[in-house]
Design brief:
Blueprint lengths: L1 H19 L21 H4 L4 E3 L5 E10 L5 E8 L8 E6 L4 E5 L2 E5 L5 H6 L12 H77 L33
Parallel strand pairs: 1-6
Antiparallel strand pairs: 1-2, 2-3, 3-4, 5-6
Length: 243
């Protein structure tokens, strides 16, 4: 009995090993678990936001951010003028020149120095590298989506296969059992139906034999029914009637 208790204790200890293993260590100074009150997300605050002048008129929108060698935001690229993106001019604006105001969740970005005359006189912002075309960006995005989709689809397939395996086996066994049961139940019924059909055929054949002048059904061998032989002698003459 003591040996059995020790064996059970050893098995329980082996099962408990994964639970007692150390959790994955998250490296320090790498990830940001939460957003501090002093931090903001570019898309929520400034990226793609409208920019107003001192009179509250919209003069453009923020299209991109300008980062320095230390990956710090030093400015923005603002699109101004044009209509629906056509004829638009892009100018660079220093980040500290923008007045960003958050009033109960409503973000307002103002550039007081941006008068119509100043915007018309500004030269377009010059990039050190040409921008990627729409086709290049679409190809890059498609490759990213393909890579993500292939990994996600493979994981989903393996998970579904693992979860559906026992269910498919059970369904196959049940279908097989149902087929065998139907086969067993249908067997006697088919035999009985064959006997009834055979009896009906024999009864019809006997009834045809009993009726006079009715030909007996063919035997199925292709032979014609026998007929009475014809006499070769001429028939006797009948006497003429007396007057």
């Amino acid at each position: 009995m003591t040996r059995g208790v020790l064996t059970l204790a050893a098995v329980a200890a082996l099962w408990a090993l994964p639970a007692l293993a150390d959790p994955t260590q998250i490296p320090a100074g790498v990830f940001l678990p939460t957003q501090d009150e002093s931090q903001y997300l570019a898309r929520d605050l400034i990226l793609f936001a409208n920019v107003q002048n001192a009179d509250g008129q919209i003069i453009g929108d923020v299209e991109d951010l300008i980062l320095n060698g230390d990956n710090q935001v030093v400015g923005v690229v603002m699109g101004t003028g044009g209509f629906a993106g056509f004829g638009e001019k892009r100018v660079g604006v220093r980040l500290d020149a923008l007045h960003i105001k958050n009033d109960d969740g409503k973000i307002t970005i103002t550039l007081p120095q941006a008068t119509k005359e100043v915007l018309d006189a500004l030269e377009p912002f010059k990039r050190t590298k040409p921008p990627k075309s729409l086709l290049d960006r679409a190809i890059k995005r498609a490759r990213e989506l393909t890579a993500k989709s292939s990994v996600t689809a493979e994981d989903a397939y393996e998970k579904a296969k693992k979860e559906a395996g026992p269910a498919l086996e059970n369904a196959t066994e049940r279908a097989k059992e149902a087929y065998e049961g139907m086969k067993e139940k249908a067997g006697p019924a088919l035999e009985k139906a064959g006997e009834v059909a055979k009896g009906a055929y024999e009864g019809a054949r006997e009834a045809l034999k009993e009726k006079p002048g009715t030909k007996e059904p063919s035997t199925g061998d292709g032979a014609a029914p026998a007929t009475a032989p014809q006499s070769s002698e001429p028939a006797p003459e009948q006497p003429a009637p007396q007057p």
